[in-house]
Amino acid sequence: MINPWLVAPLVALAAFMEVLDISIANVSLQHIAGDLSAGQDESTWVLTSYLVTNAIVLPMSGWLSETMGRQRFFLACIVGFTISSLACGLAPTLGSLIFFRAIQGLTGGGLQPVSQAILTDTFPPRQRGMAFAIYGMAVVFAPAIGPTLGGWITDEVSWRWVFLLNVPVGIVLSILVSAVIRDPEAFTRMRAEKAARGRKVDLLGFLLLSAGLGLLQVVLDKGEEADWFASPMILGMTVLSVVSLIAFVIWELGEKDPVVDLHLLADRNFAMANLLMFALGFILLGSTVLLPALVQRLFGYTATLAGMVLTPGGLSIILVMPLVGKLVSKVDPRHLIATGLVLCALALFRLGTFTLETDYASFVWARIYMAFGLSLLFIPINTSAFRTVAPDKSSAASSLVNVSRNLGGSFGISLVVTWLSRSAQEHQSILAGQATPASPAFRQWLDHLTGYLQVHGGSGGEHRALAEIYGVIQQQAMMQAFIDDFRILGGIFLAVVPLVYLMRRVAPPAGGPPAAH
Description:
This protein has 21 helices and no strands. The protein is mainly alpha-helical and 517 residues long.
């Protein structure tokens, strides 16, 4: 029997590779557009195509694991992800890159849920905390290191190596997975029993899910760019997505062999864990987008330096998660989750006090404080989700948990960008309304600045002074918009705290023999 502690880092690395690819390409879009003679708006489909196909496969990965066999499906995902990464790195046109990115999202979508299902079946409940700690370090650290690594690779080598980097990692993973990972006996028996009864392909469920989640992802990714429901395309996609998802839920609840087992959500603990995972994804990725954008737009940081604002927080998570992995088997996970939510909220409120004079160290420490809170969320939420799930349902449960986190991240990114844009317009309107000749303070500011510019720069002093003042108003309005966003995210974290205690208390797992794999 292979040591399970060899399995944990192996599946964590596979998940890390896939999660990293969601964020690593973001900072390379400008270079991709220039190199492939495309517009900036067109190049964003490099991200959207990946997210759409990824969102479609995630909830179906449990069904695909049961149909193909978990080890075989996991290996197929790694091989497909590796080949499509090679194709992305060699793509000659933007159209081909978008196509190969869609395949990359399709093949990579199963890596996260299958990784978690493998860990759940490989480790007994008393050891799952540490196993999820290893997995969590990979999944939470990847978005933090992605922008920094992507920026460095793009600046120093080429954007193509953002994708080509996956190839040697994927080859090594394929070899190791073939040698180390095996399907559990209980899982194999369950597959054999279903095959003997005859496995029906839930084609309608598959089509409804693909339409619903695919269109939803496009709406979330392109909504702000298209001015949301002012765009007939976005409005139409939203209606089709909602109708498809409602029909999907109704259909799946009546299916004997559904593509997604929604009956799992009838368990209160599992349902609440999914809601908390949605909130975690929402605020983790929402804040991960906001902070680099803030320091780049208003403080002039390079993409690499902006990424370095996030990296120390990611390293802090790596240091703290093993401790949380030990605590989760001794302390009520609900208390750990509640503490993590409060710490994250305080860190976000701290970011909401920053000004245009804030220095680099202050940003880094605020992110580190938030990292401590995030470290207390991922493992306890996961262990709470799986403690009441039957062993033969671990693949289906893992699919739903990962869908919740990814959907939360998509909603988080989309909404914080929308809030930022609209809040900036509101603050600019308010500030501009106060900058009138009727205001003695404004008149004094304008006269002083005009005089200074005339002494140091010649003619046209008042026009140049007005332009300078307008620039300051824009800066202040944008800073206030970022502050609003951080405070809203902090408020959401605090609002979620009472929901934690809607979960039933589950006794810490007792010792027992390791599970087979």
